[in-house]
Structure formats: structure tokens, C-alpha cells
Amino acid sequence: MNEKVKGEARRKIILDGYVNNEPLKDIAAKLGCSLASLKVSASKLGCTRSPKEAAEFRRGFRIPENKRQDYYQLMTAGQYRSRECAQILGLLTTQSPSME
CA-CA distance, 64 to 17, in Å (whole number)? Predict the structure, then answer.
């Protein structure tokens, strides 16, 4: 499966991957290309994630506008981690398994 995907199939995989919020490494593996090449192709297609969307993707949850100030205050003044702040503010609905 190390063959490179070209043309329309490549565009479809990239667009579907971004729409489905798949990790970029997984999309690059499907295409048989590097992460940098994927980012360039996605940029040309106009489907890159904004910095805000990328941060939400890395965190695994979205911070509503009405709780954003409280979240950042806990992060800086309270020195809590991202997941701890989310639990305090009730943003996480289910307890995710911790990665060890």
C-alpha cells in the first residue's frame, strides 16, 4: 500500500479526511506521501484547518465562547492542564481513557 495516489483520488481522500477530522498522519499514510506534502496539497485545495480548529482537534473538545475566558484563566492562573480545565467547566461529557 506504499503506492502513491494521484489525481482525483488524491483530492477526494484529502477532502474526506479533513471533513471527517482524521489525523493528518492517517491521511498521509493513505496517500503514501509525507506530512508536508499533504499540507501543501490541502492548502492548494483550500481545505486547511484554521489555528482555532487545529487547537480544538488536538484538545479533543470545543470551548464555547461563554466559557473561553474562564478556561484560559484556569489554564494560566490556576495552572491546570487542558483536560482538567475542561472537567472543571463541565466541557467533557465522558471520561476519556488517559494515555500513559
Answer: 25
Helix, strand, coil percentages for the chain (3-state, nearest 5)? 60, 0, 40
- pTM for the model: 0.53
d(CA 65, CA 22): 24
CA 30 to chain centre: 17
pLDDT band (50, 70, 90) for residue 44:
confident
> With contact defined as beta carbons under 8 Å apart, do 5 and 30 qualify?
yes
In angstroms, the CA 13 to CA 19 distance is 10
- pLDDT attached to residue 94: 56
CA distance 57 to 89: 18
Report pLDDT digits (tens) over 9-43.
889 999 898 888 888 899 999 999 999 999 898 88
